[in-house]
Amino acid sequence: MDGLYTSPLKGPAIEIVDLASKDDSDDEEKRDDNPDDASLEELEDGEDDDQLSMYEDMLDGMLDRSEWDEEPIDTCTVEESFAFRKRLRLVGEDEFIAETIEAGRISAKKLCTAFGIKPPPLLDGQPDHKYYPLLGLGITRELSKRVKLPEFSTIDDAVDLLKKSSNIIVLTGAGISTSLGIPDFRSKTGLYSQLEHLGLSEPQEVFDISIFREDPTIFYSVAKDILPSTRKFSPTHAFIKLLQDKGKLLTNFTQNIDNLESHAGILPEKLIQCHGSFATATCVECGYRVKCREIYNDLKAGRVARCDRCVRTLRQSKPFGIKRKRSTNGATSSKKKRQSYEDSTDDEDYDIVVAGVMKPDITFFGEDLPETFHDRLVQHDKNLVDLVLVIGTSLKVAPVSEVSGFLPAKTPQIYISREPCQHIDFDIELLGECDTIVAELCRRAGWNLQHEMMRDDDVDVQLEKGYESRYSFTVKSA
Q: Rounded distance, CA 346 to CA 99, Å?
């Protein structure tokens, strides 16, 4: 419970690692002569909290090596990175630092790249010890990761786990819906990449609750692009339903807001919508809730939807909530009143000035997740789960991103998505289109996965170079 809700968005508090591990008896003069010999702890004394916080924020933006625009000139290869991380876990941080940094085998700048940290431009030309804080954070986070279970590494292992398991948690994200034309968020062509015109400092701010309260037009301007326009579901949704039909689905925790899991037939008692959905909307002023179809036209038009109950209250409390134009004889007909509200603008008879804004019941940044997320995971699923499938998500939004590390360490976990997840060590990683991968797993398991989008494709499965359990799935050309 505490592990999920007391952790800040950017992860647990980080204890700075003493990279140099120097003897306390070293005198200050020697350290001044050779600043690279100074410990990270001492260097830390010279850094203010804002700068260290900046390093932590910087690290959060650099962990996904696949998103780097270009590789730095002096970078650890994939094979070297894997070997360094493996060695760190084997010998511990003190011995690891002694073997690498202290032995002069590698610079801190280059070693940062082994942990997915791209050296930032602001440190260009700086002495190597300036990279210690970043490297320390990277090492600490590496050691806090879930440890891969060595007994699970192959595709056959994945298939056997599916067949043998009876309480499977499926954690899903936007990647299971992209085959339907619904955009994801963080890919190079996803929703966030298309929001520069809004002038936000970060594209994620379009879902920031404080910004929504300040200016709901920003969210409404993009709502039409994420509003579910279909009740169709993907083969991956059908796969989750198949797990349910076979009595294997413990819970589907979905981060998606398209409500397609319900359309696919996932039972309400098996479904936790971690980030809410577009099924309903609630007034931010009075709490009045409606079905989202009642504000559908506003969402599609990019027009801020107002609360009908607030409007009725305002109409009854005139003249305070309603500005009125009077006719030449001082009278205004009731018919004209109704028409003026329905077509209200600043120039018409009524202008509703404080009616509450309707907010779709999706979870914005800064809002708590529904209690059902926490209660189901902690009080029910944690002690029952025997397999975790993470499908179509980069796991970059807390607290859902913490689920993998919260569950029992001996529970096997399989990752299925287009791109690798760099900050969690899954037991088996299956990369490619989610629909293709689940179809191939079902074929190998002898399961009959049926869906109108399914094709009888030959799938090429290859172990990725430098990895023990990461596989790429591609459809063979005809």
A: 72
- The DSSP secondary-structure symbol of 306 reads B
Contact call for residues 393 and 257 (beta carbons, < 8 A): no
**What is the C-alpha to C-alpha distance for residues 237 and 227, in angstroms, rounded to an integer?**
18
Give the model's pLDDT for residue 30.
Answer: 38
Cα radius of gyration rounded to whole Å, the chain:
27
The strand pairing partners of 361, in sequence order, are none
**423 noted as active-site residue:** no
351-388 pLDDT tens trace: 445 678 999 998 888 888 888 999 999 999 999 999 99
Mean pLDDT of all residues in 441-463: 93
Which residues have C-beta within 8 Å of that of residue 292, sequence separation ≥ 6? 278, 279, 280, 281, 299, 360, 361
Query: Is it the case that residue 4 has pLDDT exceeding 60?
Result: no
More confident residue, 26 or 251: 251
Amino acid of residue 231: R
- What is the pLDDT of the chain when averaged over all its residues? 79
Strands (E), 247-340: 249-254, 271-273, 276-283, 289-291, 322-324
Stretch 270-288: mean pLDDT:
91
Q: Within 10 A of 300 (CB to CB), how many other CB atoms are there?
A: 12
* 254: nearest Cα among 288, 285, 279, 229: 279
Half-sphere exposure of 59 (CA within 13 A, CB side): 25
Rounded distance between C-alpha atoms, residue 287 and residue 276, angstroms:
16
> How distant, in Å, are the alpha carbons of 49, 254, 339 from that of 442?
51, 21, 58
Active-site annotation holder among 129, 237, 275, 423: 275
